[in-house]
Amino acid sequence: MSLVEVDSLTVEFGDLRAVDTLSFRLEEGAALGVVGESGSGKSTVASALLGLHRGTGARVTGSVRVAGTDVQEADGEALRRLRGGTAAMVFQDPLSSLDPYYAVGDQIAEVYRVHSKASRRAARARAVEVLDRVGIPDAARRARSRPHEFSGGMRQRALIAMALACEPALLVADEPTTALDVTVQAQILDLLHGLRQETGMGLILVTHDVGVAAESVDDVLVMRHGRAVERGAVADVLGAPSAAYTKELLGAVP
Ligand code: ADP
Ligand code: MG
């Protein structure tokens, strides 16, 4: 069994087919970059991995399995287990995922407490531990800061800490560095790399920036109009792209 098994996934929003019969696998602990231009369906795939289309108007066919759980079919309890431990997601804009009125540490503690049933005290300790792990200096004190008191890079670190708190087997990161400047971008990619090595979690890194994927993943899946154009080892696909579209993405052809 692979960590992620996507078979003939199709996601439609009304008349628009955002993802079209997409299939791919991710083995435990591996890292896959999902690349493609804006609108190619990357975020729709990312959301499907956590069952985020359920209960929305989106029409989903095909199947998505994460660690053996059928994400579309799972009952409430299995879905909670999936979202609260098996898989976690980090988005482009940390401010949209963090409540501006509450201390960052409290928000991480709350997420952890809901999913792990830990005591408040243990959850607060876990929040400080993961904030420290992602490189927030003086984590015990900074845990009491609210999101706007953090820089953009620190907020993204905090969001990664939140995702890490429940020790996910899979981290889905949707454009996690897009809003950051180049130096901070590199630091966040380094952090993700280190965490992968340390925890053995699988990573799906969604990005429109092939350069970001090239530095951070083993394999890439190139998407266009909701379909997979090609997939393979980073060096093969980006070094010698077989699809004209991939060459275009790389800027290899005018
Ligand atoms: P990407 O992440 O590659 O930029 P998306 O997955 O966000 O692409 O979007 C793919 C297509 O689906 C786009 O045309 C987008 O406008 C459309 N889309 C995405 N989410 C929704 C939604 N909730 N409702 C309607 N259309 C959507
Ligand atoms: Mg997107």
Automatic annotation (TrEMBL):
GO MF term set: ATP binding
Say which residues of the entire protein are included here.
1 to 254 of 525
Per the database record, which ranges form the ABC transporter domain? Answer: 4-250
What name does this protein carry?
A: Dipeptide ABC transporter ATP-binding protein
Which key words tag this protein in UniProt? ATP-binding, Nucleotide-binding, Transport
Organism ancestry: Bacteria, Bacillati, Actinomycetota, Actinomycetes, Kitasatosporales
Record the organism: Streptomyces aureus
Return the similarity comment: Belongs to the ABC transporter superfamily.
